[in-house]
Design a protein that fits this description.
By secondary structure, this protein is α+β, with helices and mostly antiparallel strands. Helices cover 44% and strands 25% of the residues. The protein is built from five helices and four strands.
């Protein structure tokens, strides 16, 4: 299982209607056939970190991950979602014992994600 956890904070001035719209966009992507389960909502971690929301998505295997990256809703959603953020953090949890799994995940992402899409994350300084 490949589990990705995103924590994020919206830019100042993003209103509640925009936030709800973004959450709907993320949920649309999370409902892809390749997703085993997801959770999306407010983040209740350390307030000092500044994150207000989180998205956890679990994907069964590399073939499903490839499909998830290639979902048109995923790319389209990120172009609507990422520009509204002031802060974004990502972490991955894996239960796969393969010592090369991180390299395989990176290769899957790099094969599916075009440079313009990757630049979105570069601009926000994904941590």
């Amino acid at each position: 299982m490949i589990t990705s956890i995103l924590r994020f904070q919206f830019k100042d001035g993003v209103n509640e209607a925009e936030i709800q719209g973004v959450l709907s966009i993320i949920e649309r992507t999370a409902k892809a056939e390749s997703v085993a389960f997801y959770s999306l909502g407010r983040y209740f971690g350390d307030p000092q970190e500044g994150f207000t929301h989180a998205y956890c998505v679990s994907i069964p295997d590399l073939a499903s991950l490839d499909r998830y990256f290639r979902e048109p809703a995923h790319r389209e959603g990120d172009f609507q979602f990422i520009p509204l953020l002031s802060k974004l953090s990502q972490m991955t949890v894996l239960n796969d014992p393969d010592p090369d799994i991180l390299a395989k995940i990176a290769a899957c992402r790099n094969a599916a994600v075009d440079p313009e899409w990757m630049a979105l994350f570069d601009r926000i300084g994904l941590t």
